[in-house]
Amino acid sequence: MEGETTGQGVKKIKNGTESELERVMREKGLEYRGISIAELPKLEERIFQLHQRGILETNFFREAIINGGFSLPEDFPGIRSLIVVAYPQLSTRLVFTAGGRNVKTVIPPAYRNFRNRILEVKGCLEKAIAEKGFRVDPAFRLPLKALAAGTGLGAYGRNNIIYVSGMGSYHQILAFFTDMDFDESTLKEPRLLELCQDCRICEALCPSGAIAPDRFLLKVRRCLAYVNDAPPEYSFPEWVESGWHNAIYGCMLCQEGCPANENFLENWEEEYFFSEEETQILLEGVPEKELPPELKQKLGEADLLGLLERLPRNLGSLLHN
Ligand code: B12
Ligand code: SF4
Ligand code: SF4
Fold it and tell me: Which of 253, 258, 261, 317 to mutate to test the pocket of ligand 3 (most atoms within 8 A of CB)?
């Protein structure tokens, strides 16, 4: 496959003033970077070192490394690179009704329609490069923040979340294997957001101490996002105060209070209202097949059906705030 390289490091398809990939991604408002697949073992090693030092407080090590999350798909020979993509996404507002009172909460950015977005972006990438004989396949199990930082797509905030220029932390990170080459594709050192140098707002706002002054990595088990994503049979630990909950799952306190996000707080991707009766049905944990069709459709659109079993616990806690 013949080609030349652009200043941005993307293989430019012959006869194009810019590569088709750059054009398609720009039109969709997506940011992306490419990295050689040969760099992946270096990332694995970085994470392994954190594990060796005993500071990786997450199951991620087991899932990603021991269970082969870094291994390449066998049905895709000739993988050359990874394309790492940031797709902007705002919060989705939810308004529940209980005791005549409206209770407002959110689905955080990045949580909604993840699978659909993978397919959508895969479609865009295919439109741009498949025609030239390249292939793309989603990479689900790689450490996406570390990849975003390692490709220079984004920088870490002190809150452990990736920030991308023009999107703040309001985006989803996606990654794809491809047999296309990028020329500027070595693994970079992770960068801290400049604003964080003189700021500790997120540390102060985190109610549970998950963002700690003495370590960069999150204290994962203290994070409300870890707590309220637990399977439905687990109730919240005693140390979690109900007033802390602020999202139907996940938590937005360290993002909403961050000055790097000030442009993204006012708008919603979408808004869904739940009547008193609907709120009650959700609190009772009515199974999906017994839901009134309209409520089921609304939950489907909001991408909340997968969370149905956790709703009595998570929503119940929000309503008691
Ligand atoms: C496990 C997981 C969680 C766990 C643990 C999070 C964690 N910090 O490890 C829990 C349940 C707590 C969680 C919470 C959330 N998550 Co989460 N999570 C994941 C998952 C599955 C893996 C994360 C991972 O790689 N952990 C492993 C560690 C090693 O990664 P790391 O933190 O990047 O570690 C690097 C840095 O610490 C760096 N480093 C070390 N020291 C230093 C020092 C300095 C100065 C610097 C700059 C860097 C640095 O080196 C490490 C290795 O490279 C990913 C999906 C995926 N496949 O990647 C989503 C993912 C990371 N989560 C995501 C989101 C949106 C969230 C929440 C914001 C959701 C919410 N609103 O509640 C919260 C954020 C909580 C927080 N403040 O971090 C997004 C991230 C989007 C973004 N913009 O960053 C992802 C990518 C999912 C997605 N596809 O959108 N998550
Ligand atoms: S609140 Fe301040 S320290 Fe925390 S991520 Fe935002 S800018 Fe950085
Ligand atoms: S998501 Fe919430 S609990 Fe987790 S670190 Fe941020 S503020 Fe703390």
Answer: 253
Q: Is the pLDDT of residue 68 over 80?
A: no
Q: Which amino acid is at 53?
A: R
pLDDT-derived band of residue 187, with 50, 70 and 90 as boundaries?
very high
Alpha-carbon dihedral sign for residues 240, 242, 244, 248: positive
- Asked whether 193 lines ligand 2 (CB < 6 A), one says yes
pLDDT reading at 242 higher than 90 = no
The per-residue pLDDT for range 165-177, each reduced to its tens digit, is: 999 999 999 999 9
* Alpha-carbon distances of 258 from 50, 88, 159, rounded to whole Å: 27, 17, 9
Ligand 2, atom 6: closest residue by C-alpha: 258
Alpha helices in the chain (DSSP H): 20-28, 40-52, 60-61, 114-129, 144-151, 201-205, 224-227, 253-256, 276-284, 293-301, 311-319
List pocket residues of ligand 3, CB cut-off 6 Å: 159, 205-206, 208, 210-211, 218, 223-225, 251, 253-254
Q: Which residue among 169, 192, 195 is best mutated to probe the pocket of ligand 2, counting the most ligand atoms within 8 A of its Cβ?
A: 195
Average pLDDT over residues 258-277: 94
Residue 125 pLDDT > 80, yes or no?
yes
Q: What atom of ligand 2 comes closest to residue 203's alpha carbon?
A: 4
Ligand 2 atom nearest to 163, measured from its CA: 5
Side by side, which strands form the sheet with 136-138?
Answer: 31-36, 81-88, 171-178, 136-138
